[in-house]
């Protein structure tokens, strides 16, 4: 075998599994179809020398997918989604684990796993509170809902470390890195950096194409970008961990089952119970509150409506001279969708749309927010949320379960019918998280890693 463990993907699931397997003395190879995003790469991104949007023949940082019935956005880089997320890193509320989760993953067990992930990721609230956070606190008082300063995985940097961007791409690059005066600690600085020090080989610009069982393990067919040309190859390992993100892992497995027939015994539950985590975007225009420009991270706080409506309203920055405020909503919308491939092999999403009660609650809360801010609400029409929902937190589709008829992987993340083949990304979540899921994915990967290592 070329390795003991091949990990496909280097985000919040893959980087955790890579570290724990390497610490156990296993030979680990990580396949990542994206690039390494160091300081030089971000400078190239800002001035247009590197692509912003990922395409099949040209890797870019944002992995945007516009399939039938769904739009999603994720990351494509060494460190996965940690390069494009807002750095908000927190556990899900205890109530999330009350139903539909494997019996072994109790609230107590999840707390233990969260603590393990927290020791590596080190999320902390901001010490310096910008004016937009204080305005959020004022709005929360008017809405009778608390404004919470969020735990972020960022480090304070001197403002002079960042040149003020003059272009849209420059602003995007600054936003992605953590803001003018802050820098995100992406996974290539934490879990993945430790994994490499422990001996893990990370192979950027390597994309997995299929997996085939062989005697004693699995063969991964892949392609590698060399001098602007993709070349196919293969690697073998005793164990494989799929952690390429929900919108890559689910269609990958569907193709392996239904098109390539290399994994024909995958559960019929594949693609079922897919969730958008209640994601919704809106803006408030012409608000009357004074918000000073600051050098803080893109996100600092949200309005906590969990106890009443199972949702949160998160500020994501004031734009256009401080007169348009972008607001993101997320929450526990447990109306499931389904992912499948059409007759041409293209991914499609089937859903009746968000829960009517949940959608009514988030619209009511957004109107309250706009009124409290003294502005006008700008939001997508209800028709768009039903026919083309958008999410940056796609979850499920290869869910964990105690029985194969209910899910794709067992309570340890191992695929039913395929010993030694694991899944460790957002696709295994049995329900939404209600909050940004990065820490939950990392915690579950810690759990998956325990089984992987103990059965090595």
Fold and architecture overview:
- Helices cover 27% and strands 26% of the residues.
- With 456 residues, the protein is α+β, with helices and mostly antiparallel strands.
- It has 2 domains: 3-121 and 153-277 and 336-349 and 390-454, FAD/NAD(P)-binding domain; 125-152 and 279-331 and 352-388, Cholesterol Oxidase, domain 2, CATH 3.30.410.40.
- It is globular.
- The two termini are 14 Å apart.
- The model has no long low-confidence stretch (mean pLDDT 94).
The amount of helix comes to: 25-40%
Count every helix, treating DSSP H or I runs of 4 or more residues as helices. 11
CATH topology of the largest domain: FAD/NAD(P)-binding domain
CATH class of the largest domain: Alpha Beta
Category by helix and strand content: alpha+beta
Sequence-ordered SSE layout with sheet pairings:
Elements: E1 3-8, H1 14-23, E2 28-32, H2 39-47, E3 62-67, E4 70-75, H3 107-121, H4 131-143, E5 147-149, E6 154-156, H5 168-177, E7 182-184, H6 191-197, E8 201-204, E9 206-214, E10 217-226, E11 229-242, H7 246-258, E12 274-275, E13 280-285, E14 301-305, H8 306-309, E15 311-319, E16 324-331, E17 338-341, E18 347-350, H9 356-373, E19 376-378, H10 382-387, E20 390-391, E21 395-396, E22 421-423, H11 438-454
Parallel strand pairs: 1-2, 1-11, 2-8, 4-20, 11-22
Antiparallel strand pairs: 3-4, 5-14, 6-7, 9-10, 10-11, 12-21, 13-16, 13-19, 14-15, 15-16, 17-18
Which key features would you list for this structure?
2 domains, alpha+beta, single chain, FAD/NAD(P)-binding domain, 26% strand, 6-stranded antiparallel β-sheet, 22 strands, 7-stranded mixed β-sheet, 27% helix, Cholesterol Oxidase, domain 2, 11 helices, 456 residues
